[in-house]
Amino acid sequence: METAMRRPSLLVLLAAAAATPSGLAATPAPIYAVTQSIAGPDGSWDYARTDDDGTFVYVARSNAVTVLEVATGKVTSLGSVQRGHAVVPLSGGRLLVTSGTDGTVRLYDLRSGAEMASIAVGKKPDAAILDPQKTHAYVMNADSGTVSVIDLATSKVSRTIPVKPALEYAAFGADGTLFVNNEEADQIETVDVARGVAGKAIALPGCKAPTGLGYDSAHDRLIASCANGKAAIVDARRRQLSALVDIGAGPDAVIMDEARGLAFIPCGKDGVLDILSLKGVRVEAVGVVTTEVGARTGALDPKTGALYLPTAKFGAAAAGGGRPAMVPGSFHILVVKPAR
């Protein structure tokens, strides 16, 4: 296993000036910067997503979904959930939200805001993604250690697949395998969704508590964000770890921008956004944007390349090493845009 070294921390993403084997200068990477901060309602948050055309940003919150209209900056709330974790825009003007405390998935009509369905799944539904055909949603039940498969045509659970507890984010590979991070086992679980059975896990030595996960279809590889300041690069075909790349502390998501050949990892403890290049045989760290402490997840507008990172201000650390309390009225969404 080869290990890539971390680049020095910078305020913005720097252009790579190293020469290629042919002696030509490498194409400069784009420069990113925080351009805006948009206030929103108080409360905790988890995953965020944009719709396909970048019109709205959705953030799963403690008791609702925060909706940001990108063009106007208007912020509204949608629905009622109990510790929201994932938000997934669906066809037909619908939104899927996982409600962790009560073990349900809620479907909302985005035009009216009305709840269309409440679907019982497993304990602590966390991440949720769509299959490549966008006909089924796959919900990772962290405490139950199962994956609930929801038929979006009927709004019902069509299958429950036993895996292991501590499931985090997931991604589909080119062969249809569902890959799921296991935060406690330090590995990536594999699921044969056609047969509805779990397969052999992929060990991640050197990666502690993987959470965020992205799939690079151009190179058939996975990028997992690890709590110990590493990004694990996994060969999806061979099902093995190929490299570890240094990142910041406290990541909870991997945001893929395959159109631009980049992966973004927001690291909430250090308050940085690590940027990895996917363009070569090796995944390389090409720079860091200073964001804010707490910015650990985010969403990408695939058309413009802009990123939206929810966060808040925090008080002093709690006694005994507990999480510091959020400062009332401080929740906001950072906007990070490419300058070129």
Could you characterize the architecture of this molecule?
By secondary structure, the chain is mostly beta strands. It has no helices and 30 strands. The chain has a five-stranded mixed β-sheet with strand order 1-23-22-21-20, with no helix packed on it. The chain has strands spanning 2-4, 32-39, 45-50, 56-61, 65-69, 74-78, 84-90, 94-99, 104-109, 115-120, 125-130, 136-141, 146-151, 156-162, 167-172, 178-182, 187-192, 197-198, 202-203, 213-216, 221-226, 230-235, 240-246, 255-257, 262-267, 272-277, 284-290, 299-300, 307-311, 332-338.
Give short descriptive properties of this protein.
mainly beta, 5-stranded mixed beta sheet, globular, 340 residues, 5-stranded antiparallel beta sheet
List the helices and strands and how they pair.
Layout lengths: L1 E3 L27 E8 L5 E6 L5 E6 L3 E5 L4 E5 L5 E7 L3 E6 L4 E6 L5 E6 L4 E6 L5 E6 L4 E6 L4 E7 L4 E6 L5 E5 L4 E6 L4 E2 L3 E2 L9 E4 L4 E6 L3 E6 L4 E7 L8 E3 L4 E6 L4 E6 L6 E7 L8 E2 L6 E5 L20 E7 L2
Parallel strand pairs: 1-23
Antiparallel strand pairs: 2-30, 3-4, 4-5, 5-6, 7-8, 8-9, 9-10, 11-12, 12-13, 13-14, 15-16, 16-17, 17-18, 17-19, 20-21, 21-22, 22-23, 24-25, 25-26, 26-27, 28-29, 29-30
Strand proportion, as a percent range, falls in over 45%
Average pLDDT rating: 92
H/E series, N to C? EEEEEEEEEEEEEEEEEEEEEEEEEEEEEE
Separation of the first and last Cα atoms: 34 Å
Morphology? globular
Percent of residues in helices comes to under 10%
The largest pleated sheet is described as: 5 strands, mixed
Given helix and strand content, the structural type is mainly beta
DSSP summary, beta strand count: 30
Unreliable parts: 1-25
Quaternary structure:
single chain
WD repeats: 93-118
Keywords: Signal, WD repeat
Signal peptide: 1-25
InterPro entries: Haem_d1_sf, Host-pathogen_enzymatic-act, WD40/YVTN_repeat-like_dom_sf, WD40_rpt, YVTN_b-propeller_repeat
